[in-house]
Amino acid sequence: MFLPVKRSAGFSLIELVAVIVLLGIVAISTTQFIRQGVGVYVDSARRDNLQQQGRFAIERVSRELRNALPGSIRVSGDCIEFSPIEAASTYLGSVADSQNGSLQAVDFVYPVGAVSNRRIAIYTVENQDVYNTARQAVVDLNGVDSVAASQRQVNFKNFIAPGHQFNNESPTSRFYIITQAVSFCVRASQLYRHADYGWLTNQATDTATIGGGVILSEFIQVLDDSDGDGDVDDPVTLFSFTSGTLQRAGVVHIDFRFSDPAAADEWVRFSHDVFVRNTP
Question: 0.70 cut: is pTM over it?
Answer without folding.
Answer: yes
